[in-house]
Amino acid sequence: MAQPAEKDYYRFVVLFFNCLLTFGSYFCFDMPSVLQNQFQGNLTCPNATVINGTVDCVEGLGMTPQEYNLLYAIYAWTNAIVVILAGFLIDKLGNRFGVFLFSFLCVLGSSMFALGSHFKGTTYLLPLMLTGRLLFGSGNGSLTIVQNRITAFWFKGKELALAFGLTLAFSRLGSVLNFFLTQRFEERFGMQWTLWGGALLCVLGFISAIIVSSLDKVGMRQLGLDGVIQEESRKVRIQDVKLLSLRYWLLVLTIMFFYNGIFPFIADASKFIQDKYNDYTQKEASYIAGAVYDSSLVLSASVGILIDYVGLRGIFAVSCAVFTLPVFGLLAFTFVAPLVSTIWLGITYSFAAASMWPSIPLVVPQATIGTAMGLATSVQMIGIGISNLVVGQILGTKSSDTKIPLWRWQRMMIFMLANTIACIVTSVLLNIVDHRQGGTLNKLTKRSAQAERDSDTEPLSHAEEVESEDERNAQPTSRTVGSVNS
Question: What pTM value is reported for the model?
Answer without folding.
Answer: 0.68
